[in-house]
Amino acid sequence: MKILIVNSNDIRGGAARAANRLHKGLQAIGIDSKMLVQNKYSDDKSVVLPVRRMGSITSELRPRLDSLLIKMYSQRIQIPFSPACVPFSGIPDAVNILNPDIVHLHWVAAGMLSVSDIAKINRPIVWTLHDMWAFTGGCHYDNGCGKYENECSRCPALGSSCSNDLSRYLFRVKRNVYKNIPRLTVVGLSRWLSKCAAQSTLLRDRKIVNLPNPIDTYVFSPFSSQMARTMLGLPLDKKLVLCGADSIGDYLKGFDVLPKALEKIARPDIEVVILGASGVPGQRMGGHRVNFLGKLFDDISLRMAYAAADIVMLPSLQENLSNVVMESLSCGTPVVAFDLGGNGDMICHKQNGYLVDHKGGGMAFAQGIEWLLDNYDSVPLRENARQLILEKFEITKVAQQYKLLYEEILGETD
């Protein structure tokens, strides 16, 4: 069985790391898996780049060209939006050369694949949804809009009041293209996203299955908190609450909620750790000192960050199946998050973390933080966190589930 995993990057970004883990998991159980990417950052020989007649400069220009269409919407909000209209990616040709049995798409935006290119792939397609983009008019998360259940238009993400806007055009393009993809299986990583896809106009008639991302529980495992703090230069005598985000200004990451939550907590022993962003030394959030770790690209550094923290905070307002939650729990660090999206697939309330009613806002989130800190020693939070990941998300177990899916698809095409 030859599987080709297609993703924009190989190891940078949440979707890339998840797709790469599946790639490694499939190889570990004896499946011939390769990974086709637009940008390669590893030295893995089983990760390949498409050969383009115009050279590597094309991969750098495509994301910029793809973003030009949304520049005309001056009132757009800071929610990721991908038109995916730039043609001639070279990906279908690369797929034909590699000749896999199944093409497994993951995150293919950022100019990697145009929507029309997907229909040119002449193989059975499995498409893992890392967000909502496959069934919307361009946004990656709809922020509660829900128009994908009928037809996108007057897009809130674009700040558009026009019925025939870019979102409607892109929605109709997808609808027409999808008609020409006869062998498509959709994977929703969380129960929430699987349900959204099943309710969508574009994908409701497709086979939709719920399978998670895998994680290497050997790499992401418990480690001495004191040693991790020493290695990362973090204080040894504070309660450290960690939050991961690519940008502190990202609305959907909940960074307008987090300061409000932290300012409700009067404890002087708390310091905040931010993973994935940089800031000014001495900066404070909600009255508490902030330690910035910047971007950590390797799993060992990430493991140290989770081990150093007493708890991890995920204030995201929409979330699929968060790598941050899975990695943290695998390291034995409990998580507080809103009871939204796929968070409930991994967090068991007051057993390995705390699920917050999203209607409660910052006050409710603060209560979750304090409950975890207050019950840190009285409830086996760390043991429970690790055990759930071992049972449901361990890499070889998940890879075996995908193998069964592939075999079922190939059996149907014989």
Word description of this protein:
- This protein folds into 2 domains: 2-214 and 394-413, Glycogen Phosphorylase B (Rossmann fold, 3-Layer(aba) Sandwich); 225-392, 3-Layer(aba) Sandwich (Rossmann fold), CATH 3.40.50.2000.
- The chain contains 13 helices and 14 strands.
- It has helices at 14-28, 57-67, 91-98, 115-118, 166-178, 191-199, 225-232, 258-263, 299-308, 323-330, 361-374, 381-392, 395-413, and strands spanning 2-9, 32-39, 47-48, 102-105, 125-129, 184-188, 207-210, 239-244, 270-275, 284-285, 288-294, 311-314, 335-338, 353-356.
- α1 (14-28) packs across α13, α7 (225-232) crosses α9 and α10 crosses α12 (381-392).
- The chain is globular and about 60 Å long.
- It starts with a strand and ends with a helix.
Q: Which helices and strands appear, and what pairs or packs with what?
A:
Blueprint: E1 2-9, H1 14-28, E2 32-39, E3 47-48, H2 57-67, H3 91-98, E4 102-105, H4 115-118, E5 125-129, H5 166-178, E6 184-188, H6 191-199, E7 207-210, H7 225-232, E8 239-244, H8 258-263, E9 270-275, E10 284-285, E11 288-294, H9 299-308, E12 311-314, H10 323-330, E13 335-338, E14 353-356, H11 361-374, H12 381-392, H13 395-413
Parallel strand pairs: 1-2, 1-4, 2-3, 4-5, 5-6, 6-7, 8-9, 8-12, 9-11, 12-13, 13-14
Antiparallel strand pairs: 10-11
Helix pairs in contact: 1-13, 7-9, 10-12
